Amino acid sequence: MSEFENPYFTVSIPFDHYDKIVSKEKSIVIRCKYNCYCYDETPRLTDFYIIKSDFGNITERMIIQELIKLKHNPQCDHMFYEGVSSTPLDDVFDIYFGS
User: Fold this and answer.
1) Is 73 part of a structural domain of the chain?
2) Which H, E and C letters describe the chain, residue by residue?
3) Parallel/antiparallel/unpaired status of strands 10-11 and 58-59
4) Calpha distance 63→30 (Å, rounded)
5) How confident is the model at residue 1, as a pLDDT?
6) Structural domain of residue 28, as residue ranges?
7) pLDDT on residue 37
8) Which end of the chain is more exposed for a tag (fewer CB within 10 A), N or C?
């Protein structure tokens, strides 16, 4: 049984990475770009999500939980959550999905 209930994607990072600290900030913005071949026929706009923490550290687990809560669904062949960028670009972290 998975730790994460009813995701629209598969978590494919190792279990020991779930508690990896992505940021020590209390909130971050993550971006999901839909620029793969799956959207050639039906382009999709980029999604932005704000991830918040009361404790000041944001982990991979918190990001995954928030994506599930928000019912994030890549709707393409790239359904495997591979994590977020290690450093933000323009104060935004990119999330990565693979196939």
Assistant:
1) yes
2) CCCCCCCCCEECCCHHHCCCEEECCCEEEEEECCCCHHHCCCCCCCEEEEEECCCCCEEHHHHHHHHHHCCCCCCCCCCEEEEECCCCECCEEEEEEEC
3) unpaired
4) 9
5) 41
6) 10-98
7) 85
8) N
The closest of 5, 77, 74 to 37, measured between CA atoms, is: 77
CA distance 19 to 57: 10
Domain count, the chain: 1
Residue 52 in any domain: the answer is yes
Return the pLDDT at 27. Answer: 92
This prediction has a pTM of 0.86
pLDDT for res 50:
94
